[in-house]
Amino acid sequence: MDRLYELSRLAQKAGPYLLLEMVLPGGTLIALLLYLHQNGHLRFLGGARRFADDIGRRIGNDLERTSLGWQTGPVWPVTMNH
Known about the structure:
The chain is mostly helical. 73% of the residues lie in helices and 0% in strands.
């Protein structure tokens, strides 16, 4: 009787993941990521995201400064010939 109870608990827990796996394309990966997220195994990615945001911001600032440096050259007047 205990085995039957354990089997029903397992089916209740795994049901949504199995449904995702069967219905969605790439469902195995989605179900795995959902399981890991719900059980707190993806918390380390929070730090990685902050790190990536910081790197992106720094690169953006450097590119902006570089492009402003290129724009400070002499501007020649444009003449229109009719």
